[in-house]
Amino acid sequence: MTTTSPADADRExxxxxxxxxxxxxxxxDAGPPIALVVIFGVFAVLSPDFRTVSNVQNVxxxxxxxxxVTCGISFVLMMGSIDLSAPGIMGASAIAVALLVANNRNDNxxxxxxxxxxxxxxxxxxxxxxxxxxxxxxxxxxxxLGVSAVGLGVAxxxxxxxxxxxxxxxxxGWAVERFLGLAHLTWIAVACVLVGALVQRYSRLGRxxxxxxxxxxxxxxxxxxxxxxxxxxxxxxxxxxxLAGVLVTSQLGAGLVQxxxxxxxxxxxxxxxxxxxxxxxRGGILHSVVGVLLVTVLTNGLVQVGVSPxxxxxxxxxxxxxxxxxxxxxxxxxxxxxx
Length: 339
Description:
By secondary structure, the protein is mainly α. It is built from 13 helices and two strands; from the N terminus they run H-H-H-H-H-H-H-E-E-H-H-H-H-H-H. The longest helix has 27 residues. 48% of the residues are buried.
């Protein structure tokens, strides 16, 4: 009787089925970047103001918070799960950081420590989502929706009917001060993207996130305990959402319960448009970031050419439906049985 070491099992899982990210560039991988270039070019022709350097900087700054949220949600989507907890986690973290740094409600002035606590609060709520998923065996969209409600409840209790306005110069400076033409929070978002890409590419957690989405049964049969990795992914996603709540607080200069409103749908839209499948096993951080830029450029361009903001939500909805259909159609054709 032969035994398999954990290292050997890890190598077997990476090579089994679909879990390992593809190294080649396919048409589906190149599609979103090409679409981004085409949409940018169209709006640049239609609106001279769109192609200015200042507007490009505005687009990148506007994409910062969404990019951080999308980093978290991309790992969850790679596992084939759905995460709707971002609004609640962002709201709780936003109120927490506003009350922990210098503000008009109390005498706290914890600076970066307050930011760290807010991010840890997001990670704790994300961990709660993961534990509910693996322990209660409830579908992820239900558990995360419940955790979002918990986060909003915690935020409402901390809000206590009085809005905490931030007076901390460091946190306010993230949205105002610039480096190389971009706001500091944009550079924070770039750092989050790099960290997410490195985790996805070089860590066991990143490989197993793909494996869970692509061939969870193979992973389990290889002797790997899947549950801890699911909890770890949701915890990491919660930390990203918590940081995003801090960034929104920096932008607004105040803590708001609804700081994360709508970011869950926007992040899922961006990830799917960028090529990260809802069914898991394909895509990743860099794919999703392209989707973030595509959605942000589209929104900015529609405003520049005079399209009513009321149409923008509908346009986003049509885009995500088209992106999902385009991603699923080839799989349907491969799975068809010829009689």
